[in-house]
Specification:
This protein is α/β, with parallel strands linked by helices. It has two domains: about 130 residues, Ribosomal protein L1/L10, rRNA-binding domain (Ribulose 1,5 Bisphosphate Carboxylase/Oxygenase, 2-Layer Sandwich), CATH 3.30.190; about 90 residues, Rossmann fold (3-Layer(aba) Sandwich). The protein contains nine helices and nine strands. The chain has a four-stranded antiparallel beta sheet with strand order 7-1-8-9. Strands 4-3-5 form a three-stranded parallel beta sheet, with helices on both faces. It starts with 5 loop residues before the first helix and ends with a helix.
Length: about 240
């Protein structure tokens, strides 16, 4: 059996896999050549020139997509008292402490992002083995351990399109930046924000080529290699 469907295989004959594409051109091509019937997610995949085995070469950051992500985000906040009230007023989907911790320990994970106030971490820390591997554990580096007065801002950002990313053990970064239903210019604007964030988070110890290769793809579509210099220039053009 073929690994990919007919649609996918037909599309791959319409571009040169070795060619470096302009980001806007790659986005337009993938929009015009869908490979699935659902509203696919556009993704940026980067091959980085860092060594993730060294803590001082980790690349990690948060980007708020200016045009949103097109995804509904279910937000959980670990808080009590006034902080819990602030989270509820901010529009968090789930707010609590011991009740939510017990629920998660029982296997419930029906949320996409977890935020915690510092006072909650003594209890939330016991969920590390459950939430950590899923990228859901509140963390200072991800900006998800916040003071009560910051809860509204972080919840608002998540609603607008807050995306966390980090380099994985194979030195790759994967960032979703919109849906196929978005206009090309909206996707380009989101892509520019993602690229700018990665470039600004370059570790001081990183030497040589920082972004070695970059690809744009959709959930079920082929990957088009893009010119990394043109990707960096989107910061200026967008």
């Amino acid at each position: 059996m073929p690994k990919h469907g007919k649609n996918y295989q037909t599309i791959t004959t319409q571009f040169d896999a070795a060619q470096l594409h302009e980001p806007r051109e790659a986005i337009a091509f993938l929009k015009e050549h869908p490979t699935a019937r659902f509203n696919e997610t556009f993704e940026l995949h980067l091959r980085m020139g860092v060594d993730p085995r060294h803590a001082d070469q980790m690349v990690r950051g948060v980007v708020v997509m200016p045009r949103g992500t097109g995804k509904e985000v279910r937000i959980l906040v670990f808080a009590e008292g006034e902080a819990a009230t602030a989270a509820e007023e901010a529009g968090a989907d789930f707010v609590g402490m011991d009740d939510l911790i017990a629920k998660i320990q029982g296997g419930w994970l029906e949320f996409d992002m977890a935020i915690a106030v510092p006072a909650a971490m003594g209890k939330v820390g016991r969920l590390g083995r459950v939430l950590g591997p899923r990228g859901l554990m509140p963390s200072p580096k991800a900006g998800t351990i916040v003071q009560p007065e910051e809860i509204k801002r972080v919840v608002d950002e998540a609603r607008k399109g807050r995306v966390e990313y980090r380099v994985d053990r194979t030195a790759n970064i994967h960032i979703p930046f919109g849906k196929r239903s978005f206009e090309v210019e909206a996707l380009v604007e989101n892509l520019a924000a993602a690229a700018d964030s990665v470039l600004r988070n370059r570790p001081a110890t990183s030497k040589g080529t920082y972004i070695r290769k970059a690809y744009i793809t959709t959930t079920m579509g082929p990957a088009l290699r893009v010119d990394t210099n043109a990707l960096a220039q989107l910061r200026v053009l967008a």
